[in-house]
Predict the structure.
Amino acid sequence: MRSLFVKIFLWFWVAMALISFASFLSAVATESHPFFDMPWLRLLIRPHIEGHLKMQSGSFTGHWISVVGNSLRLAGQTAVEIYERDGKTALLDYFNELERAVRIRFFLFDEQNEQLTRWPIPEEVGELSLRHRRDGLDYERSGESIFTAQQLIGPGGKQYTLIAGLPARHFLTRDYSFLAMNLIIILITAGGVCYWLARYICMPISKLGAAARRLADGDLKVRVGSVLGRRRDEITELGRDFDLMAERIESLIGSQKRLLRDISHEFRSPLTRLTLALEIARRREGQDAINALERIELEAQRLNALIGKLLMLARLESGAEEVDSAPVNMHELIEELVTDADFEARGRNCNVRVVLTENCFVPGTRELLRSAVENVLRNAVRHTAENTEVMVTLSCRMEGNSLRAVIEVRDKGPGVPEESLADLFCPFYRVGDARDRKQGGTGLGL
């Protein structure tokens, strides 16, 4: 039984079936006779019934009469007190009210065996009254009834005999077809509820499994948030986590594809120029051939630099190469880079100057830090308007227990669109579609 749906359904259904069956047995054991349904007698009789059910031997009828007799004795004692205090009329009113409540007729006899209730006496009642006084007989069964007798003593010391007729059907012989039908209905209803519960729990899990298989087959657009509906539970949280995972995988694979495309583009341009330069060198002599060879050398150097950067990037991202970290004087590094950038900017009638620098040392690799800062500075020089100034600021800030160097570069160019800021640190990413050397580099600086 590997199906989670079947497990949930069966466990809940069996549990509800056992609870229903236990309730059925409890109802049979403690509510087995209509006489016990009377609210005023139930609390009096129930403890005696529970004690009786624990008994393992003896006559059921005798025990049943003993149990009921204890409660009837209380009712009879009340009747005797009413009779001696208020007379026969009050006694008849009490018995009439009691008969309407419990559907049992009571008979009360005095010491002379005279009936005090004034209604017809069945033959069995008269005989039981006499034999009770003579032989001490407590009950007598007649047909579908049991007549039980109780000896009572009134407040005045007089003796009385109380007789009541009770149904004698054994609770094991009752017709419980209606209870069985109720039990079947409960089981069917419980089965329906358990089926719905199991389906409610397992359906989104099945959808998650189907989405996972589609993702494994290469469908990177698959998401489960929309198919889970408006649930607000742990399965929905799992679905959201799955969607985040799928988005991340799609982004990573998309980045790899874009990286492969950009690498191909970066290699194609210098290789094309190399091919053209070789053709020129073959066809020409003298200075033209020298110029072509110099061009080949330049493009080869660019390819070598690009391949070196790619290899470094791959090693850093894979963790195969540990970067040596040492304190770097950011003040000296910024001054050196600004000097180089200012020299390059003069060709466009621009200049680069340091507005403010502080002595700041940060742990890192000087060449990598130089590459990152130089990338930003050269982009500022390239995109700032002519006859403008690029300003550089270096400041030191404490964040927690660590010192941070904050480098600000301000130019008069168009700036980077807000939606592109997060992509500046992706390999080969460049704002816009320009791919020529005049407009942009390889996209590996940052």
Summary: The chain is about 55% helix and 15% strand. The chain has three domains: 33-173, 222-322, 324-415. The longest helix spans residues 234-283.
